[in-house]
Design a protein that fits this description.
The complex is a heterodimer. By secondary structure, chain A is of the alpha/beta class. In chain A, 37% of the residues lie in helices and 24% in strands. The two termini of chain A are 36 Å apart. Chain B is mostly helical. Chain B starts with 7 loop residues before the first helix and ends in a 24-residue tail after the last helix. Classes of the chains: A alpha/beta, B mainly alpha.
Chain lengths: 251, 405
């Protein structure tokens, strides 16, 4: 029984069957990659996990509970964090404040009215956030405005924000999209480090095969809205069906 | 020095605000009576009261608009609700404002809860339009169907036939606070041509303004305030960080509605009248202008903006030909005539033009409002590099620059 169990998920947009009968099981404490050519339905599938889309058919269970029909913030509080294709951070706030918001969300839940406490007096939150920034090597940038960070640092910050919540499942939507090779390698190292340091399950949607084969322990190949194969990276590499899906014909 | 749970910097800031507020009757009276520039004196009770009241209105509006970015075009509705509540308490109980003001805060809070609950289902322009629609509805209802409560066009006022069950025989028959009559002056000294007026009503509103300013300062520095600023920056990220943004925005909406209700109540506390025109959209628009002009999302901005607009409205509008002639009398006739003609566009009835131009200049060149202007000037004087994480600040996050000052 995996931590994330997807059964018979289908989603239709007008005339387009984006997903049909997707079955997927992500085992706890693994890195599971979902790959596939453009338009295979990777992002649609991810959006079904986080509450942005509700599938027409099937079920998505996280840790034994259904996520369907729940709002994004509820799903997040269940223990699923998400990294976006373009880093989504609070650009008007400082790096430190960005991470502190995650710490507050982790401690206080979806809503807490605390207008007369003072942020500067929340020593446990501040300590937590500082530790998190050290973990991603951004402690020296704590007082910078998040807007002024480089793309790579924004990614790091977003990762720190997700990890500060101690999620059980981290979803990554093309974490290296649009990055230079050096930045991509940094991100791979960061993700490896994260994986080593804590018990966390990751599901990665990725285009870049270099990233996929450096990180993934399991790979699901999606093509035209259905899973083609699921296997270990070694077996996927030489799989004829995968080559066909990517190159249009068997090589 | 630190007081009331504030940092040393905020304490200093609060003390400055307290000093400025309490010294207003002196500070706004820089020119001796009878001099040519006496027109620019603003230290008379009526105007000072308005500074404080609109300051409160703008401080509250800033908690919603400045922090969350939700632009409400209907906050005047709460102003009206506050006024009506206070006048009703005069009619039913007596002229002591102690009954009406807390109730005004509560009723406007309930109103804000209802309007906010519906309006906050949408964001951006749709939210603005919904709030505008609600406010205009309230305004039109106050004029028509709700006449039994609002007394329609005449406006709500106290009549001798009203019950006023608590009214004692020796009690003042104008608004008062346990016998301190709002319209009375407690000291009117004259120092060699300088005339100062210390008015009960002004100090009553000023003390309330200081208290609510302190509350807004605490909100700005709280985790709640941090969440509100996060909402303005990126609601998507906040949702995917496990935060339900709706109750946060609703709380901000209700708090700002309560501030508006308090301001409306104070208006009726200074002058025992309440009219529907207080709820009109122009009044809602005015507070938006105040906050943007002063600097949205800053602590001092709304107060500066409110002061600026009320000053223009009251001082520039009363500069008439006679005053202009007095100023230019030493010039040759043709020149003074020309200058008076030109001035006609900017002062007297045309004060709106001056304000409009000023507003445009601020929005184009100083998006951070008057506060940004102040910060730029301050930077010119001290060209120090910003201190970055000294020893003492290691364990305290620095406030983001845009909410400081």
């Amino acid at each position: 029984m995996g931590i994330l169990e997807v059964k018979g998920v289908g989603k239709r947009f007008g005339g387009l069957q984006a997903l049909s009968d997707v079955n997927l099981s992500v085992a706890e404490n693994t890195v599971h990659a979902i790959i596939g050519p453009n338009g295979a339905g990777k992002s649609t599938l991810l959006n079904c996990f986080v509450g942005k889309l509700i599938p027409d058919t099937g079920s998505v269970m996280f840790n034994g509970e259904s996520v369907l029909g729940r709002k994004p913030h509820e799903i997040n509080q269940m223990g699923i964090s998400r990294v976006f294709q373009t880093p989504e951070i609070f650009t008007d706030l400082t790096v430190m404040e960005n991470v502190m918001i995650s710490c507050f969300a982790h401690r206080d839940g979806a809503f807490r009215l605390h207008p007369f406490e003072t942020v500067a007096h929340e020593t446990d939150i501040i300590e937590q956030a500082e530790k998190m920034l050290l973990d991603v090597n951004m402690a020296d940038k704590r007082n910078m405005h998040a807007a002024s960070l480089s793309r790579g640092d924004k990614r790091r910050l977003e990762m720190a924000m997700c990890l500060a919540q101690e999620p059980r499942l981290l979803l990554l939507d093309e974490p290296t999209a649009g990055m230079a090779r050096a930045d991509t390698n940094n991100t791979i190292d960061l993700l490896k480090e994260i994986k080593e340091k804590r018990d966390i399950t990751m599901a990665i949607i990725e285009h870049d095969m270099h990233v996929v084969f450096s990180l993934a322990e399991r790979i699901t190949v999606l093509a035209q809205g259905t899973p083609l194969v699921e296997d270990t990276p070694e077996n996927i590499k030489g799989h004829p069906k995968v080559k066909e899906a990517y190159l249009g014909e068997s090589v | 020095m630190k007081i009331l749970g504030l940092s040393a910097k905020d304490t200093r800031f609060l003390l400055i605000v307290i000093f400025l507020t309490l010294a207003t009757p002196i500070l706004l009276q820089p020119f001796p009576e009878g001099s040519g520039l006496a027109t620019f004196n603003a230290g008379y009770p009526d105007l000072m009261q308005r500074f404080a009241i609109f300051g409160i209105f703008a401080i509250g509006f800033n908690i919603l608009f400045g922090l969350t970015g939700y632009l409400s075009f209907g906050h005047a509705a709460f102003l009206g609700v506050g006024s009506y509540t206070v006048v009703w308490m005069y009619k039913l109980l007596d002229y002591n404002v102690v009954w009406g003001l807390p109730l005004a805060v509560i009723t406007s809070g309930i109103f804000a809860l209802l309007i906010g609950f519906v309006s906050l289902r949408r964001s951006g322009i749709y939210f603005s339009i919904l709030t505008l629609a609600f406010a205009q509805m309230s305004y039109n209802l106050a004029y028509s169907v709700l006449t039994p409560i609002t007394n329609g066009e005449t406006g709500l006022q106290v009549y001798s036939s009203d019950s006023q069950v608590l009214l004692g025989a020796s009690e003042p028959t104008t608004p008062h606070f346990f016998g301190i009559v709002m319209r009375d002056n407690f000291w009117q000294p004259n120092f060699g041509g300088w005339q100062f007026t210390f008015n009960n009503g002004y100090y009553f509103t000023a003390i309330i303004a200081i208290i609510v300013f302190y509350i807004s300062l605490r909100i700005f520095r709280s985790p709640f305030g941090l969440m509100l600023r996060a909402i303005k920056t990126n609601q998507t990220r906040l949702n995917y960080t496990g935060i339900n943004t709706r109750p946060y925005t609703l709380a901000a909406f209700v708090i700002s509605g309560m501030y508006a209700g308090l301001a409306g109540g104070l208006m009726a506390a200074m002058d025992p009248l309440a009219g529907a025109e207080r709820m009109q959209w122009t009044a809602s628009g005015e507070v938006v202008l105040m906050v943007i002009l002063g600097g949205a999302g800053t602590l001092m901005g709304p107060i500066l903006g409110a002061g600026f607009i009320k000053y223009f409205e009251n001082i520039f509008s009363k500069i008439n030909d006679q005053i202009l002639q007095g100023w230019f009398s030493w010039m040759p006739d043709w020149l003074s005539g020309l200058l008076i003609e030109i001035s006609h566009f900017f002062v007297g009835k045309s004060w709106h033009l001056t304000l409009g131009l000023l507003f445009m200049l601020v929005v184009i060149f100083l998006p951070g409002g008057l506060v940004e202007a102040g910060q730029r000037i301050a930077r010119l004087f001290k060209k120090k590099p910003p201190e970055n994480g000294g020893k003492g600040s290691d364990h305290h996050p620095q406030p983001a620059p845009h909410v400081a000052e």
